[in-house]
Design a protein that fits this description.
This protein has 257 residues and is an alpha+beta fold. It has one domain: Gcn5-related N-acetyltransferase (GNAT) (Aminopeptidase), CATH 3.40.630.30. The protein has 8 helices and 8 strands. α2 packs antiparallel against α4 and α6 packs across α7. The chain is elongated and about 65 Å long.
């Protein structure tokens, strides 16, 4: 009996993350998880629309300068105060429209690649894998790792998303740990990731996992996006590059996300 209890505790330690009385289990993706994974991924991306359109505005003084110049120009041309009054609403609507357009384009691109055939993409090579986090029998999070041998032996953390109702329960930390275990087991020297999120919670999670920001690309252009002049005016993001050196990584066990 003691041996069986020990084996059970060992299994929880290796595959689960305790959160109070609940255990978060992180396991490899199976075909039955596909609908939940795609839903969580979609909902996470759609949250980026208002985040980019509205919260991101205060992080781009160059965009505010352009909008101010547009306001002055409109006033000089029209001399109508009601046009000036409408301009802020027009700007916000433009930012929302183009943020949604770019993110939908990114979603379509992801669905045509790995997220449309998760099992086929992530089981082709031992250097890639996708995991789900399960809490109380429900899939509540997803994360993937893809080996980047051309990047100096790094593995890229991708597709991390947590169900909105289960955030700050340790799900993000449990998923991040699984990627770290994968990197160590496959002898990768580092883990890299990129994000255009402006929410502080996302950046705090990466830092809690041991990542450090190694660069920021201002005016990041989404891969495969079709750019127009209006899109360049109304859609502008910062892309943060994070890196974690596997031998020196430290994860705080009581981190919550």
């Amino acid at each position: 009996m003691e041996q069986k209890a020990h084996e059970k505790n060992e299994k929880i330690h290796n595959n689960g993350h305790k959160n109070g009385l609940q255990t978060i289990v992180v396991r490899e993706f199976t075909p039955v998880d596909e609908a939940d994974v795609q839903r969580i991924f979609y909902e996470g991306l759609m949250e980026m629309v208002p985040d980019t359109a509205f919260r991101g505005l205060r992080h781009h003084p160059e965009s505010l300068l352009i909008y101010t110049a547009m306001t002055v120009l409109c006033f000089v041309i029209t001399m109508c105060w009601w046009v000036i009054g409408l301009l802020p609403a027009i700007v916000l609507c433009g930012r929302y429209f183009y943020s949604r357009r770019v993110i939908h384009g990114y979603l379509e691109c992801a669905m045509s690649r790995d997220m449309g055939d998760i099992e086929g993409f992530y089981t082709k090579s031992p250097d890639s894998c996708l995991w789900v986090a399960v809490l109380e029998g429900k899939v509540v999070g997803v994360v993937a790792a893809v080996g980047q041998q051309k990047s100096g032996g790094a593995v890229e953390l991708q597709r991390m998303s947590v169900d909105r109702s289960c955030r700050r329960c340790g799900v993000g930390v449990a998923l991040g740990r699984k990627v770290l275990e994968f990197a160590a087991a496959h002898r990768y020297s580092s883990i890299v990731l990129g994000t255009t999120a402006y929410t502080t919670a996302a950046h705090q999670l990466y830092q809690r996992l041991g990542f450090r920001c190694v660069g920021v690309t201002n005016g990041y252009v989404t891969q495969d996006a079709r750019w127009s002049l209006l899109q360049r005016i109304f859609y502008r993001v910062r892309h943060h590059h994070y890196r974690l050196d596997v031998p020196n990584s430290k994860i705080i066990s009581n981190g919550q996300h």
